């Protein structure tokens, strides 16, 4: 049961991150599922990052690597703040 609870929590948090990113949709993708891979990579970073700013740097790196984009930390700070507030607080 404990493993199942962890799995459910992981999926809930991942879907929250995915939803937040899709609402922002910096790359104009057509479906929230298109950010699923990135949400999976962002999830552990949310808990490891010491600040919103460092989370923004990580989100920027993950999205730029995944989509070969050129987002900046400044463009990602707002979304990092939203994710931080939803997940960490």
TrEMBL record:
Pfam families: DUF1871 (PF08958). It comes from the Bacteria. This is DUF1871 domain-containing protein. The lineage of its organism: Bacteria, Bacillati, Bacillota, Bacilli, Bacillales. It comes from Priestia aryabhattai (Bacillus aryabhattai).
